[in-house]
Write a structure and sequence with these properties.
Length: 440
């Protein structure tokens, strides 16, 4: 006979909405990740970023020239500096196919560890509903999917970025510099992030961030057969823009035949938006460190993708801290235009259309540029609105009676009121927080 007393308490206790979401999403997220790794990545694609890297590693081991790419073709080229060649050389120890699989697994592990550190950066753990949401969103995105399918190094670069931010917030300056310095040895895509320790006065970061690539270059230079060819042959190519597989303003503008003056004007306009956003964010750098670091890193990197010589869609993986900042009460991502922008640069959807070929091609080629552009506009608009609202509040609210958030020189706070820490009253002065949070 059925007896309610024999039913386990966990069965009768109603689940919260967050628990139900986690129960549903964990298996979906895990299976999505496995599918991307075991099926799509192993199957590969016509674009193969790994082949030229493996060939360069083999040539390096055998003392032959590495920088011999024909840049007139659209095939992936080997573009890493000698320090990067030294770091990736061990992949040549294994046979090509086995080495590629090992590289896919290394990138996958790096992405998963980076996502975990990102959760910890925001004070979240694996039991938070954000954990399966983040895993599912990451492995569903074009950025992670094509990083694994094309088999490039961006998963490891993502780990370097998140580790850099995570350690920066904890004032582990030398180790923070090590994390980003290793990425500089391969590619300088994260260079704009050095503005963060500069603003925060964490000067020791620069010792290891700049020292590591210099030391690796000094070691690799005499071992390479043609190190100067990187300077004379490869570096000039890296400074040029191209009109294919390029979502930067200059790339799409050139592809669609826009006048050079209009392209320059658009780049200047968005450069001003980036500078304005960073200026508005600087007032948060002490009062709300996690918000400042996550948001400013996103603005700087989005600006570099959009304004640089080359911006590829899968670079958007590096915007993960900005996207997860939606969990913060004062996040700039808590509005629908911001997520319309995110759809543009994250979605794996193809908009190529058989019925409407011209419109479909334009939507497919422009969605990333549109997404990055809209994101910068939204962030600047949100920050400017908060600044104007705070100025208006300053006129009618006595000092010390703001609504919470980072304290400015006038004594007013911007954003939601933070909860007091244990042992701290609402009126106690806040102290600086040291705990939170075919291409190149």
């Amino acid at each position: 006979m059925y007896s309610p007393s024999l039913v386990h308490p966990s069965i009768t206790r109603p689940r919260s909405t967050a628990e139900l979401v986690a129960v549903v999403l964990w298996p979906v997220a895990v299976m999505t990740a496995l599918h991307r790794v075991l099926i799509k990545a192993v199957n590969g694609y016509i674009t193969d970023d790994f082949a030229p890297v493996y060939a360069a590693a083999v040539e390096f081991w055998n003392g032959r020239e590495v920088y011999t790419a024909d840049f007139s073709s659209v095939d992936p080229h080997y573009l890493y500096p000698p320090s990067g060649t030294l770091l990736i050389a061990p992949i040549a120890v294994l046979p090509p196919e086995l080495s590629r699989w090992a590289f896919i697994l290394a990138n996958t592990a790096a992405i998963v560890v980076a996502l975990y550190l990102l959760l910890r950066m925001f004070g979240l753990g694996l039991r938070a509903v954000a954990a399966p949401v983040l895993l599912f969103a990451a492995f569903s995105s074009e950025a992670v999917t094509n990083t694994l399918v094309f088999t490039n190094i961006n998963g490891l670069v993502l780990l370097g970025e998140i580790a850099f931010l995570f350690l920066l917030l904890r004032r582990r300056d030398y180790w923070s510099g090590v994390a980003i310095g290793l990425t500089f040895a391969v590619k300088p895509i994260l260079a704009p992030l050095l503005l963060l320790p500069l603003v925060r006065g964490q000067w020791r970061v620069f010792v290891t961030a700049l020292g590591i690539p210099l030391v690796l270059t000094a070691v690799a230079w005499p071992l390479a057969a043609d190190p100067w060819a990187f300077v004379t042959h490869t570096a000039p190519y890296l400074m040029q823009s191209r009109d294919y597989f390029n979502s930067a303003i200059v790339g799409n503008g050139t592809y669609y035949g826009l006048p050079p003056l209009l392209i320059t004007g658009l780049r200047v306009l968005f450069a001003l938006l980036v500078m304005g956003s960073v200026w508005l964010l600087c007032r948060y750098h002490r009062g709300d460190e996690v918000f400042f670091v996550a948001t400013t890193s996103g603005v700087l990197l989005t600006g570099s993708f959009l304004l640089g010589s080359l911006g590829q869609m899968y670079y958007s993986m590096m915007l993960a801290p900005l996207l997860l900042s939606v969990v913060l009460p004062n996040s700039v991502m808590r509005n629908w235009p911001a997520w319309l922008a995110a759809y543009g640069f994250l979605s794996y959807d193809s908009w190529l259309s058989v019925r409407f070929p011209e419109a479909g091609r334009a939507a497919e080629y422009m969605k990333t540029t549109f997404g990055w552009s809209l994101l910068l506009i939204v962030i600047f608009g949100v920050l400017l609105h908060r600044r104007v609202a705070a100025r208006q509040t300053e006129v009618c609210v006595p000092e010390g009676r703001g609504r919470g958030g980072p304290v400015t020189g006038s004594g007013f706070r911007f954003g939601p009121r933070a909860r007091p820490r244990p042992g701290q009253t609402r009126h106690a002065p806040r102290t600086r927080s040291t705990t939170p949070g075919g291409g190149r």
